[in-house]
């Protein structure tokens, strides 16, 4: 497994250990955290290391509900707690909630980019 995919696997395992559903494709069931490459995806760090970035999208239930934003806030808190367990991971800043249309459903969501140092 490449360093990049190993970094993604660390994120997925941390989310799973915290009881958070995750997805790496557009097929998912909310609430969950969608994990995909960030931009830039990778860059050299101290040799021989690299830095990788992963875009996380926390997706709560449908919008038009105050409960969706509460669920989103809880999901972000849980995700931050899970990320703290990964060595070399910096906690991200999360975007303000927005509506994300996926398939035919609209979900409340928030996006962040997490950075991991790998060796």
Key structural traits:
about 120 residues, alpha+beta, Threonyl-tRNA Synthetase, Chain A, domain 2, elongated
Could you please describe the fold and organization of this structure?
The chain is an alpha+beta fold. The chain has a single domain (3-118), classed as Threonyl-tRNA Synthetase, Chain A, domain 2 (2-Layer Sandwich), CATH 3.30.980. 28% of the residues lie in helices and 41% in strands. The chain has helices at 3-17, 66-83; strands at residues 22-23, 32-44, 50-62, 89-90, 98-102, 105-118. A hairpin with a 5-residue loop joins β2 (32-44) and β3. α1 packs across α2. The radius of gyration is 14 Å and the shape is elongated. The mean pLDDT is 88.
TL;DR?
By secondary structure, this protein is an alpha+beta fold. The chain has a single domain, classed as Threonyl-tRNA Synthetase, Chain A, domain 2 (2-Layer Sandwich).
Shape type = elongated
Ranges where pLDDT stays below 50 over 5 or more residues in a row are none
Distance between the termini: 14 Å
- Counting H and I runs of at least 4 residues, what is the number of helices? 2
Amount of helix: 25-40%
The average pLDDT score comes to 88
The second-level CATH architecture is 2-Layer Sandwich
Based on DSSP secondary structure assignment, what is the total number of beta strands? 6
Kindly identify the CATH topology.
Threonyl-tRNA Synthetase, Chain A, domain 2
Please give the domain count. Answer: 1
How much strand content do the residues show? 35-45%
Q: Largest beta sheet, briefly?
A: 6 strands, mixed
Please report the first level of CATH classification, the CATH class. Alpha Beta
């Amino acid at each position: 497994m490449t360093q990049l995919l190993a970094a993604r696997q660390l994120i997925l395992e941390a989310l799973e250990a915290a009881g958070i559903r995750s997805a790496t494709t557009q097929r998912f069931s909310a609430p969950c955290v969608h994990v995909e490459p960030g931009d830039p995806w990778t860059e050299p760090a101290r040799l021989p290391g690299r830095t990788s970035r992963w875009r996380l999208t926390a997706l709560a239930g449908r919008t038009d509900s105050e409960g969706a934003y509460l669920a989103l806030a809880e999901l972000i808190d849980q995700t931050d707690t899970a990320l703290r367990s990964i060595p070399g991971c910096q906690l991200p800043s999360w975007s303000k909630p927005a509506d994300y249309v996926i398939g035919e459903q609209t979900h409340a969501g928030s996006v962040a980019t997490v950075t991991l140092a790998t060796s």
